[in-house]
Amino acid sequence: MYIFITLHSYQDFSRCRVDYGDYEGVMGLEVHAHLLTKSKIFCGCSTAFGAEPNSHTCPTCMGLPGALPVLNKKVVDFAIRLGLALNCTISKKSIFARKNYYYPDLPKGYQISQYEEPICTNGYLNIYVNDEKKRIRINRVHMEEDAGKLVHENAIDTSSYSMVDYNRSSTPLLEIVSEPDISTPEEAATYLKALRDILLYLEICDGNMEEGSFRCDANVSVRKKGTTELGTRTEMKNLNSFKNVEKSLDYEIRRQIEVIKKGGQIVQETRLFNVDEGTTYSMRGKEEAHDYRYFPEPDLLPLIVDDAWIEEIRKNLPELPTEKMERFIDEYKLPRYDVEILSSDKELARYFEETIKLFPEPKTVSNWIMTELLREFKEDNISPKDSPVSPACLAELLSLVKDGTISNKIAKDIFPEVYKTGASPKKIVQEKGLVQISDESAIIKTIDEVIARSPKELADFRAGKEKLLGFFVGQVMKETKGQANPKLLNALLLKRLKGE
Ligand SMILES: [Zn+2]
After folding, report:
1. Measured in angstroms, how far is the CA atom of residue 171 from the centroid of ligand 1?
2. Among 195-199, 459-463, 484-488, where is mean pLDDT lowest?
3. Span 105-127, mean pLDDT?
4. Which among 61, 161, 355, 366 is placed 20 to 30 Å from 119, CA to CA?
């Protein structure tokens, strides 16, 4: 029996809490992270991206008969680094295994991966969704090699030939597998972001989703709230942006609920997400699922890791994003929202801390970074470490506001120039004559002029239309080109308007 269902494609997803009625989603994510090692996992070939096709190859990564793999120690270092950051147990002994399947981009006819005894197991990652902490357990982290890349003449089904580039063959990957602890698409995206932040903090992956160095597959099932049994799951492949992860998972959860409500059954299958239509569609069913016939890789010895090796790596771990967030909340009394933004990039966090060393008002600095500075960074697409405005320069600008030399508005007005030229804010303020007018008599003089030419507004104000205060402030600011000290102006103006 066929079950026909109609679903609206996913269109207006906003970051509000999703509601699936009596049902909830159950998701586990599998993430592949490309490692930033200089050479490949089992040979000395370069991992550099964008080279002439097949120029970074040797008999080992092209799978020629008789060539033997030699494990790259750096890959193990990176795997342990991530394992420790994810609170995993590091296996003293782990095994490489052959995952057998044939595809033209896999010259050996098998991929060397880890199967029964991976290097890291039983970890967790804490995430925060709507200010609530949730622990996502990590089942395992294992090492493996990537395949090569096929290049087709045009779309795969109309090409008369395909070409293969083995430059990517045998580049190192870590696969990070979570337990099915994720209940909403928002949690999935938050988990992914948190995981990506950790990889970036550890400097072991560049986290680029578009280029495929950080890729995600998801296992999705649904169940009635309050039950614990797992439903039949589908596998979503190649979710290549945070937005697509949320959209596709939301669609897939709703689709499964619809099928179940109509008395149907979920079919175990692999599905893909159609970005344009916002829907998911079946790629292959269970009957086509591979049986990889894993067995221990006979060309590699079991990997033995001792305590000294693990401790050496633990000692050199940087402060991780969650630790930094907790510290920022504790030390600087910042809201979680600010802290999540500031700690999302190690360099941005460093920039913030350098600035508050010179201007110790964390919330003011945080506001400026999150609005003015990040806007410029985004426009120029640059990293905080390349900021043309140094922390000292930003601190100088904020000090000018604090000591009353300029108003906050003037500071914001000149910020783009400070950013563009990298010039000292003090110098710009002096050169442009922007120093705030804090001379009472000068302000009173302008106030009196404005009042003299606005008799109607004055009468209305005195008759109780207090909103007109804004009108008078605006007029005086216009006359003084925004340079009147706002606090002083308000106080003086009120006195004048009330006839005091
Ligand atoms: Zn090679």
Report:
1. 9
2. 484-488
3. 95
4. 61
Q: In this predicted model, what pLDDT tens digit does every residue of 76-100 receive, in sequence order? A: 999 999 999 999 999 999 999 999 9
Measured in angstroms, how far is the CA atom of residue 47 from the centroid of ligand 1? 9
Non-local CB neighbours of 406 within 8 Å, separated by 6+ positions: 400, 414, 429, 434, 435, 436, 483
Ligand 1 centroid to residue 317 C-alpha, Å: 30
CA of 145 to the centre of ligand 1 (A): 11
pLDDT higher than threshold 70 for residue 228: yes
Distance from the alpha carbon of residue 71 to the mean position of ligand 1, in angstroms = 12
Q: What is the pLDDT of residues 279-309, one digit of tens each?
A: 888 877 666 556 899 999 999 999 999 999 9
Among 130-134, 173-177, 371-375, 383-387, top mean pLDDT goes to 173-177
- CA 434 to mean position of chain CA atoms: 39
| Cα 165 to middle of ligand 1, angstroms | 12
Structure tokens at 418: 């400070």
Rounded to the nearest angstrom, the distance between the alpha carbon of 445 and the centre of ligand 1 is 80
Share of the chain above pLDDT 90, in %: 57
Q: How far is the CA of 195 from the centre of ligand 1 (A)?
A: 29
What spacing in Å lies between the alpha carbon of 456 and ligand 1's midpoint?
85
> In angstroms, what is the span from residue 67 Cα to ligand 1's centroid?
10
Ligand 1 centroid vs 291 CA: distance in angstroms? Answer: 27
Cα(69) to ligand 1 centroid in Å equals 9
- For residue 17, pLDDT over 70 is answered with no
Query: 234-239 and 269-274 as β-strands: parallel, antiparallel, unpaired?
Result: parallel
